[in-house]
């Protein structure tokens, strides 16, 4: 019988929200509703740690399966151990589950679970399903924890080689020009209520702003693109993409 592994979250919240640094945005809620979705969104300015949030309680307290955003861990492990080619021309989209499931198998359950525990990634009892424990709701993570993870990655503060974190940052860079750089991970699953995660950061004038969005939708069609478009619409409304933030 395979053993199960208990993940314990040692800190309640990576970034503590207080009334003094949180702005609740009804506008973002209206944008999410207009897109035919429900969920939460948070944007954090790095220098002040000021938050713009919609659905604060869900952001802080509701935990969901990480879906394919979990592949960040085996990718970082793979870079560290030389099990993943660092040639950017060979990188595969996070949507390519089979590729990264094979990487998880190659790394092995013991190492994967050790790294989950090492960085306190989420919480729950990780199932023995090595082909999908990140989407079977045995491992759960909050939006707040996701934001903490992506900020630590940005500053190369995770317990992986700095080169590995730099390579992963290049991997998730989606858009760049003289005004901004936009980096993100997106993952969805129609089997879990059409849930989608989008997390990452946007940089303007060398200043990072970190964001995370979790949604569910009644319609499971084209979830990744729909959520990325929603993210961009929210960022436009917040004044980004002009190089003036």
Strand composition percent: 25-35%
Helix content: 25-40%
CATH topology: Beta-lactamase
Number of domains: 1
Terminal CA distance: 54 Å
Main-sheet strand order equals 2-4-3-11-10-9-8
Query: What's the CATH class label?
Result: Alpha Beta
- Gyration radius (Cα, Å) is 17 Å
Helix and strand composition category: alpha+beta
Number of helices: 8
Keywords:
disordered N terminus, alpha+beta, 245 residues, four-stranded antiparallel sheet, globular, 8 helices
Would you give an account of this structure?
This protein is of the alpha+beta class. The chain has a single domain, classed as 3-Layer(aba) Sandwich (Beta-lactamase), CATH 3.40.710.10. Strands 2-4-3-11-10-9-8 form a seven-stranded mixed beta sheet, with helices on both faces. Strands 1-6-7-5 form a four-stranded antiparallel beta sheet. A hairpin with a 5-residue loop joins strand 9 and strand 10. The protein is globular and about 45 Å long. The chain contains eight helices and eleven strands. 34% of the residues lie in helices and 26% in strands.
Q: What is the compact description of this entry?
A:
With 245 residues, the chain is an alpha+beta fold. The protein contains eight helices and eleven strands.
Secondary-structure map:
Blueprint: E1 5-7, E2 22-24, H1 26-34, E3 37-45, E4 51-54, H2 56-61, E5 63-64, H3 72-81, H4 97-107, H5 109-118, E6 123-126, E7 139-142, H6 143-154, H7 162-171, E8 173-176, E9 181-189, E10 195-204, E11 207-217, H8 223-237
Parallel strand pairs: 2-4
Antiparallel strand pairs: 1-6, 3-4, 3-11, 5-7, 6-7, 8-9, 9-10, 10-11
